[in-house]
Amino acid sequence: MAGEQDRQRALKIIREHMKPDQRIFVGVIAPINPRIETPEEVRDQTLDAAKYIPLEQLGTTDDCGFSPFSDDTSTTRETAFAKIRVRVLGTALASEALA
Fold it and tell me: How far apart are CA 24 and CA 58, in angstroms?
């Protein structure tokens, strides 16, 4: 979802097809993009997703993971951990805003 061009459309499709027993993890981090997102950006994306997905079913994640493909090592370990840290902080901010 972090790289999705039309997030609203995608979230509507998820809402339409999700089942009550499913946990929906939305991507709020773009692992391939070297820019490190801010906690506030993650918060805003999470709050946006919460308009479509019930809180008890909503989770956050990165778009695809940080494992290198083939010989691609363009995402450094430091960048990966910084992005993970931002996801945790931004998700906590969203949780506080939704409380």
Answer: 5
